[in-house]
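seq/struct pair 1
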Amino acid sequence: MTFKPKNAVVWMEIPTADMEKSTAFYSQVFGYKLFTDTSGPNPVAMISTADQSGVAGHIYPGKPARDGSGPTIHLALPGTLEDSIAAWKAAGGKVLSDPITIPPGRFAYATDLDGNSIGLFEPAKG
C-alpha cells in the first residue's frame, strides 16, 4: 500500500542559540506575530498560520546544525522574493543563491542568524 498524506510535512522546528534574537529576526523579516508557549519542557516561539489549521512550527532553544548543513525549511514569504531577500539581509541573515524558479514558484537559499538553512519561497502567481 502506498502512503500519500495530505501534507508530507506536518510541523517544523527551528533551533536557535538565542531565542530573543531569533524571535526578533523572524518577526522582522516575515512580519510574524510570534507568541511564547511555555507548556512544554522549553519555551518556544510559535509561528501561526492564518486560520490555525495550516502547517506551522516554532523556534526553540536548541543546537543548530553547522552553517547550512542541516535540512532546509522553505518558508512562505509575505511579499516578493526580492523584497524578502532585502529584508533577510537587513536583519542580519545571509542569502546563498540567486532566485531559483521551479513550477510551484521561486525561492532563494539562505541561512538565518544561527546558520539554519532556510528557503525563502514565493509561490507562482495564478
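seq/struct pair 2
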Amino acid sequence: MPTEPSHVSDWTPLLAAARLQLESKEEVPRFAEQLGRMYELWLEHLDAIRAEVGAAAADRLETEARTVGPRLKNLEPLLIVARRPG
C-alpha cells in the first residue's frame, strides 16, 4: 500500500475516488537534479540557515535534505492536473 506520493504508480484510481478527471500528466524535467542541488546547498550553508531561521527550522531542513535527497534518483516527478467535472 502506498504510504507516500512517490509510491503511487498509477494516480488514476485515486483521482477517480476523489471524483476528479485527469486533464494531463507530464514528467517534470530536471526535477531531481534541481531539488538535489537545493538540498546540497542547504547542507553546505546549514550554519547560516540556522542563524537566519533558527535551530528548529534548520533542523527540519537538514532532516529533509538527508532523507529525501538520497531517494531522488528513485522518483518519477510528475505534474498531474485534474479537475472536478460538472
